[in-house]
Amino acid sequence: MLNTRALIALMLSVAMVTIDISLTSTAIPAIAASLNASPASTIWVINSYYLTVVASLLPLGALGEIVGHRRVFLIGMVVFAIGALASGLSDSLMALMASRGFQGVGAAAVSATTPALIKSLYPPEKIGRGLGLYAMVVGVAFTAGPTTVSAVLSLTDWPWLYLGTLPLVLLAIFLARKGVPNTPRAARAFDPIAAVLCALMFVGLLTAISNASHLNPIPMALGAAAALLFGYTLAQREKGKAAPVLALDLFRIRLFALSSLTSITAFIVQALVFVVLPLLFTINLGFTEVQAGLLITPWPAALAVMNGISGRLSEHIKPGVLGAIGMTTVAMGLVLVATLPTTPSAWDIGWRLAICGVGFGLFQSPNMVALMNSAPKDRSGSAGGILATSRLFGQSVGAAAVALCLSAFGNDGIEIALWVGVAVSATSATVSAIRLTKLAQ
Predict the structure, then answer these.
(1) Which of 68, 72, 74, 60 shows the shortest CA–CA distance to 173?
(2) Are 298 and 324 in contact (CB under 8 A)?
(3) Which residue in 6, 112, 296, 333 is deepest, having the highest Cβ count within 10 Å?
(4) What's the pTM?
């Protein structure tokens, strides 16, 4: 029988962690104005969060396999709650960056362990429904951020975007302690040196990406060099291990590798769009910040409906087909957004974003099921870490792409970023379709 309390705890935790990401993305104009910082520099608040999340995901996923996913999950939720409190009390850009970085470690622990915990709740023949529900919560929570920001900012100031999540986070911790079950533990030791090397590799990589987006060549080159050095050292240390922290062995499974790549490219698009749309609506089209958040609502609304449908469709239609159709639909929707009339109405904007939401929902649940089911059962923690890493790495690249367009082209970069989103959507659809060929065998 399905453990309902555990499922509620997991889904509530996932919702809080995921919506937290898009809260900051959408609130960038308000945070920048409050802290007397430029929008381009304030994007470092997003980057610092992604940096710690992506750096921590794979080590924490591996740790969950060894000490238990439940333990890592609960500690992560506590860290996340402390980070939310610190973020809400921050009075400077540096303080907010540090708080968000700390909170990112908690978010990573939750994201890395949740897929494995969901798999422990469902029988094998119904795991697609559990992961489909997870995908729906992730998609809806991320895209509901702009609407939430609009509601909060219409009543109070941006710190309450973080402080307001605390009651729900504490409720999730209470439910998880009572309901989330223990999972089998792997009979191997945790390698802390490998974990640190893995984290430093991703720190170097994301540092390079972030500095590239701000046209800082020397820090970019240093970050790239560090990523190569730590990555090479890690690969040498883990050579021959059956279950490495950097789970490159899973990428020998071609369906797994293609599903991960599809995820990265798709979430580049999602993050890019949800960073650039508030700027498009407020700077180019003259809407208020509250109006901008509300105008984005059709995307999450359509996504919620489509995610519920696509999870069941994946039981009958190959994920490669659904993903290709879905991301092609997103590309078409973004073309329509990029060619909006000079003075569009809410309807002009809404139906275009609804098309994007339908497309993304068609991709997301089936892709998650394909990725998790293509990995061995005893590697669920590592697969879950890669699932979350693919999503968040893609989102960090998407946010960096917007910063690059703004740094290079000023306000003209807003429209250019939309066309970048079109191109990456088409790439994602192509990668998804490759899963239907012999290359995925």
Answers:
(1) 74
(2) no
(3) 112
(4) 0.80
